[in-house]
Amino acid sequence: MEMSKETKADPYIALKFPEFRSYIGMRFFLTFAYQIQAVVVGWHIYQLTRDPLSLGLIGLTEAIPAITLSLYGGYVADKSDKKKLLVWIIGTMFVCSSILLIITLPQALTLLGKSAVISGIYLSIFILGVARGFFAPAAFPLITNIVPKEHYANAITWNSSNWQIASILGPAAGGLLYGFSGVVTCFTLVVVLTLVSLLLVAFFIKNQPPKFIPKEPIHISLTQGLRFVFKTKMLLGALSLDLFSVFFGGAVALMPIFANDILKVGSEGLGFLRAAPAVGAVLTMFLMTRYSPMHKPWRNLLLAVCGFGISIICFGLSRNFYLSLICLFFEGAFDSVSVIIRSTLLQFLTPDDMRGRVTAVNTMFIGSSNEIGAFESGVTARLMGTIPSVIFGGSMTLVVAGITYLKTKKMTSLSLKEIHPE
Fold first, then answer.
1. pLDDT tens readout for residues 331-370
2. Which domains are delineated in the chain?
3. Among residues 305, 291, 272, which one has the least CA distance to residue 395?
4. pTM to 2 decimal places
């Protein structure tokens, strides 16, 4: 579909809808809190265990329930009022963050012991993974109910940019707060921000009646999203490409090791390392509000994934903190192009009554690939060493992109109008 003249002329068109502003406010504060929490949990676990595998296990602990429940989460989202469902989901996240705050108090380590505290952290992350299995199928389709279809691409770009801004501020704030104020201050802020997100959904977004009423057995409904993705070649290709590139190319889980042992910049430096990809991403996304990558989406997606892999390799080879920041900046920039293309294709190609279930499949492919990739990074770091594992991951990303190109050459010349002519 071609963008309307109004959208082309006004890159801020989606922000004119009040509910959309409330929606991205919720996403901002929740993502900001999540990013602080991810930095602090990773650093805290590594300080307690000094084991790279423990960092990978954080990702696996969250990914297992998120993947397992995603299809059911999509089914529930499609047949439920998405606002009410989000209130329950974010409420659960609020409780988990409160538990993390309590068990990381200095008194808790004394009373419970190191093993109990570590187990409590992993249990809280597991429950957060359960909530994540329902969050994306409930949250992502909301955009289609509060923004007209002709403005989807603009709304998705702003939503992604908003997410990336939070991803810039969150890791930096987490690293700096942990370094200067300690773990309790960090988790207190996480609890407050999660509460703000909950209030934004509860009071500023209207109820969203379901468009899907199940008429067949639940097992058939659950698999409809999978069947739709697997028969839509470009959507399947985009999800698969992103899945394998993030699985092999993600180095985020190993950041505490780079900050502590290789670059020797401490928790403050860790915050900047975690923020650098998001800086590149958000600047690129603001650029994409004016220069859309959708004129030849498949070609641009392949180029972006190649750039992502090269950036990861360069980061693995770097021994200079500032050069590492530059490499991570470009990693985020290339990844943001991939996110915009994949998300726009997802919205344009998915029928309204299947958005929750198809988003659930997207979560299975993409949303949890970061966590599974984190586990892969932890395992390969233990087997190969930290630096070789990162270089290996970036190289495998390039291999995946190359194989995908050879199998999909005909798709590289297609425009969005040719892909979705309505």
1. 989 988 888 888 778 777 787 777 777 777 777 766 556 6
2. 9-209+216-419 (1.20.1250.20)
3. 305
4. 0.68
